[in-house]
Amino acid sequence: MARRNKTAVQRYHDRVASRYDLSYDDAYWQWHDALTWDHLKHYLPADTNAPVLDLGCGTGKWSAKLIKSGYRVTCVDISHAMLERTRRRIERMGSLDRAHIHQADLMDLSGLPKSEFALALALGDPIGCAETPGRALKEIRRRLLPDGVVVATFDNRLAAIEYHLQASDAKTLAEFLRHGRTHWLTKAREEQFPIHTYTPSQLVSLIERAGFEVLDLIGKTVLPLRHYRAHLMEPTQRRAMARIEKSLCRDSAAMGRASHLQIVARPKRVPPG
Fold first, then answer.
1. pLDDT, greater one: 179 or 214
2. Which of 84, 137, 160, 216 is most buried as measured by Cβ atoms within 10 A of its Cβ?
3. What span, in angstroms and rounded, lies between the C-alpha atoms of 217 and 136?
4. What is the β-pairing status of strands 181-182 and 195-196?
5. Helix, strand, or coil here: 28?
6. pLDDT tens for residues 207-256?
7. At residue 1, does pLDDT exceed 50?
8. What's the distance, Cα to Cα, between the start and end of the chain in Å?
């Protein structure tokens, strides 16, 4: 089963790699990415020599941004095609010497050194796409320094309710809300793999069980501007929407509206003695 799922993940991402960036090239996703960076930049290591991980790096969007910010980045993905896109992007920047390209499943990061990295990014829900997210999180924790930080995004289970109402009946919706697994990325059976979704409280529990303490949690995005992109076309309006979004993103009730959850955590500190 594990091998089938791994192959499906690779098949899907290898197939979509060539057009992946085009799917996220519009006003909403530019606004979304600006919110992502505005949140995570507070957790960037003060020392730009500190090693950084970009897990599930995809086509290298965040790896490139980290490199431009002065960091050396280990870029990790399960998909060879995605990693090739990352390599080309960073090569065009003239910064390939600041990147290490590494193919791996998040379920097995044994090819990376332990207790090495000050920051691990896992944006775009790669942990939720792992066969066992809890195990993937433990693999990540082992790679972090004792005071290292992971910043990760997950699909919000509550935000998926409308999708399942459109596609299924009450019984199927109830089952989804119970186990939280879906495979909505593709209809091709040979490419389908479980995507694990979480409510905000479930996500906190998952992170803590994996040996982390939560530093921050936001909903992203609470405002459903994916469906109202016209509000983001004018700069003043775009900034105003960002202010509203930031006023709501940590509200525990508002988080249920968000399509994704972005969490920040560090390894639990063991008390001396």
1. 214
2. 137
3. 19
4. antiparallel
5. helix
6. 999 999 999 999 999 999 988 999 999 999 999 999 999 999 999 999 99
7. no
8. 42
Q: Mind giving me the DSSP string for 203-239?
A: HHHHHHHTTEEEEEEEEE-SS-GGG-GGGGSSHHHHH
Q: Is it the case that residue 65 has pLDDT exceeding 80?
A: yes
CB 115 within 8 A of CB 140: no
Statement: the pTM of the whole predicted model exceeds 0.90 = yes
Residue 162, classified by CB atoms within 10 Å of its CB into exposed (0-12), middle (13-18) or buried (19+), is: exposed
Structure tokens at 104: 């791996």
Q: How far apart are CA 192 and CA 221, in angstroms?
A: 26
What distance in Å separates the CA atoms of residue 17 and residue 12, rounded to the nearest whole number?
A: 9
CA 184 vs CA 155, 160, 187, 188, 218: distances in Å:
11, 10, 7, 10, 23
How big is the CA angle at 115 (ends 129 and 97), to the nearest 5 degrees? Answer: 80
Q: Give the Cβ contact number of residue 246 at 10 Å.
A: 14
Length of the chain: 273
Calculate the alpha carbon distances from 104 to 107, 155, 183 in Å: 8, 22, 21
Quote the pLDDT of residue 272.
Answer: 58
Report whether 14 contacts 81 (CB < 8 A). yes
Please answer whether residues 203 and 154 qualify as being in contact, where contact means their C-beta atoms are separated by less than 8 angstroms. yes
List beta partners, residue 158: none
User: Which string of b and e fits 214-232 if b means at least 16 CB within 10 Å?
Assistant: eeebbbbbbbebeeeeebb
Arithmetic mean of pLDDT over the chain: 91
Please give the class, per CATH, of domain 2-267: alpha beta
**What's the rounded Cα separation, in Å, for the pair 92 and 110?**
30
CA distances from 129 to 5, 85, 98, 106, 183 (A): 10, 20, 27, 9, 9
